[in-house]
């Protein structure tokens, strides 16, 4: 893949990297994130053809392109805040 954009890891000190790893794990294992991951897995397993190459949007309860889902449908993510998503 020849992309003109070079994505590199953050250059953190050893102590900062450890703190960041701890924060990342704590966030990933929070009850809300775990519920979203479980819901995503259930939906993907139930309908693999609809899920192919797409992300599950917990706000609209549907599969969307990665671009649309992560960009909040062109509105950006700043206004999204701490919305209460529907987790079934």
How is this structure best described in words?
The protein is mainly alpha-helical. The chain has a domain at 15-70. The protein is 45% helix and 9% strand. The chain is built from 4 helices and 2 strands, in the order H-H-H-E-E-H. A two-stranded antiparallel ribbon has the order 1-2. The mean pLDDT is 83.
Radius of gyration over alpha carbons?
16 Å
Q: The biggest beta sheet, please? A: 2 strands, antiparallel
Share in helix? 40-55%
Tally the helices: what do you get? 4
Order of helices and strands: HHHEEH
Return the average pLDDT rounded to an integer: 83
Structural class: mainly alpha
State the strand order across the main sheet: 1-2
**Regions with little confidence, pLDDT below 50 for 5+ residues:** none
The assembly state of the depicted protein chains is single chain
Beta-strand content estimate: 5-15%
Shape: globular
Q: How many beta-strand runs?
A: 2
Distance between the termini: 37 Å
Briefly say what this structure is.
The chain has helices spanning 14-28, 31-46, 48-51, 66-70, and strands spanning 54-57, 62-65. With 88 residues, it is mainly alpha-helical.
